[in-house]
Amino acid sequence: MAAMLQPQIILLKEGTDTSQGKAQLVSNINACTAVADVVRSTLGPRGMDKLIHDDKGSVTISNDGATIMKLLDIVHPAAKILVDIAKSQDSEVGDGTTTVVLLAAEFLKEAKPFIEDGVHSQNLIRSYRTACTLAIEKIKELAVSIEGKSLEEKKSLLAKCASTTLSSKLIGGEKEFFASMVVDAVIAIGNDDRLNMIGIKKVPGGNMRDSFLVNGVAFKKTFSYAGFEQQPKKFLNPKILLLNVELELKSEKENAEIRLSDPSQYQSIVDAEWNIIYDKLDKCVNSGAKVVLSRLAIGDLATQYFADRDIFCAGRVAEEDLKRVAAATGGTVQTSVNNIIDEVLGTCDVFEEKQVGNERFNIFSGCPSGQTATIVLRGGADQFIEEAERSLHDAIMIVRRALKNSTVVAGGGAIDMEISRYLRQHARTIAGKSQLFINSYAKALEVIPRQLCDNAGFDATDVLNKLRQKHALPSGEGAPYGVDISTGGIANSFTNFVWEPAIVKINAINAATEAACLILSVDETVKNPKSESAQGDAAASAMGGRGRGGAFRGRGRGRGMRR
Predict the structure, then answer these.
(1) Shortest CA distance to 363 belongs to which of 213, 241, 481?
(2) Which of 39, 26, 201 is nearest to 113 (CA)?
């Protein structure tokens, strides 16, 4: 009786939605599986593309996992974790974004029956973390180093890695052409970590094969004034002056007031303005520079002045382009035209203005520092060129990683099958429930080769059985065997040059395991709709108040008019 009379304890606001226990964990797992099902079909060389149409009316066609995940605008709190791991994989390694989402969802899917049977999620998490550590050690053991090879050998090895990445993209048909282009671009920037030193310029029209690489900088012709066409359009070994100065006849910026007692003095003030700009232009010419670029405007007077002296100029150059020109030519951007010495001028072998499609490009090639490269992309539709740019970004990231870490593993699902076999063998040596959990982790890793088969239209069960049999050989010769996309059988991924940097796999398995453990460790979800609606009400009442005030004022004015 006393227990019944105790007051009820109210801890959370009225209307708060709490879900806990097994049911909400299973619900979170289902949400993650649903997200993975969206990107599942984009995996591998035969993966399909997704067309995403947003509320602004822009259309994106892509099969890059991270791009799709960003554009899906997911609201489920647990499923958002998958979006985050796809983004982190994209920024860290560049490729393997679909892989990481699929692995995380598959780990959760394998954990689901155990959760339903009442296994505590901490036991699963412990086993998954152990399995993850073992898997990463095995990858490092199986990885093959490409260090110590000559530059030519290295280039061909890196091109193989780039081809593997590009084979699953829209531009997969021309992967050899683009792979060598990407490798040249990455080697051109050397040890520079800044990705923006590789510029990608998009020009609609032509076909993919019309794309080209400039070992230097290329940018679109900027807005120009009269007199521009009289300037020479090609120089050999020119000196290049980079400015952040306006070369335009301007009235004083500040509200200067000058009082004159004599009208004849007016002319001297006008002359002074002209003298200032001519002085600036003379200093530019006397520096010996043949190409003058400025981030700010170069006016019609300056354009004509330079044209008369056989100097090329371009104003309003984008900041990133100017920075790349500075890095490539060895010049320094000047904020004043006073004291221009030879050390601040850049140089290159050839400067020319060239027609590319409908656009004109200013191209600096043969740059001494050579710390930059530009890829000019051609193609039919805008969406196609956008997707080509995203694909090249992935390939550039992969080649950079392979250069830095210089170890590669067999692709095509080979490494996943080998780790799966290794973990299954290891699980047999463990007594207790943990054996089952590590076994389920090993089974989840098979999702990659299975999905590669499904997307290519092959019989996944048949191919996986062949792969299991090959990887089970005691000699270990089956380790590099993966799915052969062209025949529907299995093949040695190393001899077929289907390679990927070891860092991609290590990162993907690490991130996927972390995400799966994070979702498994959540035992209660608290949603507070009251606070959301309170914000909405406050905004609405503020709007309503303003509106009513307006209405009253209107009535008052109306009465005034009638009187």
Answers:
(1) 213
(2) 26
Secondary structure letter of residue 237 according to DSSP: S
Treating both helix axes as pointing N-terminal to C-terminal, what angle do 65-72 and 80-92 enclose, rounded to 10 degrees? 140
What global pTM score does this model have? 0.76
Average of pLDDT values for 118-136? 92
* Residue 223, token pair as written in the block: 């807005």
Pairing of strands 291-294, 312-314: parallel
Residue ranges of the chain assigned to CATH 3.30.260.10: 151-215+376-405
Of 419 and 488, the structure prediction assigns the larger pLDDT to: 419
Phi-psi region of 533 (alpha: psi -120 to 50; beta: other; left: phi over 0): alpha
Q: CATH fold of 217-256+270-369, please?
A: GroEL (3.50.7)
CA-based angle 118:123:126, to the nearest 5?
155
| Cα 328 to Cα 326: distance, rounded to the nearest angstrom | 6
Supply the mean pLDDT for the chain. Answer: 82
Where does CATH 1.10.560.10 sit in the chain? 17-145+410-471+502-521
Q: Report H helices in 293-433.
A: 300-308, 319-329, 382-405, 414-427
CATH assignment of 17-145+410-471+502-521, among 1.10.560.10, 1.10.10.60, 2.60.40.1730, 3.90.1640.30: 1.10.560.10
Nearest CA to 195 among 406, 408, 394? 394
CB 44 within 8 A of CB 456: yes
Helices (H), 97-205: 97-116, 121-142, 151-166, 175-189
What pLDDT is recorded for position 5? 66
Query: For residue 212, what are the contacts with CB-CB under 8 A and spacing of at least 6?
Result: 181, 375, 376
What distances in angstroms separate CA 313 from CA 227, 284, 362, 372, one per listed residue?
A: 10, 11, 11, 21
- For residue 556, the model assigns a pLDDT of 41
Give the three-class secondary structure for 284: helix
Tokens 């044209």 identify what position? Answer: 307
3-state secondary structure of 496: coil
> What six digits make up the tokens of 251?
């009235």
Q: What is the DSSP letter of 7?
A: P
CATH 3.50.7.10, the chain: domain bounds: 217-256+270-369
Alpha carbon distance 349, 240 (integer Å): 11
The fold for domain 151-215+376-405 equals GROEL; domain 2 (3.30.260)
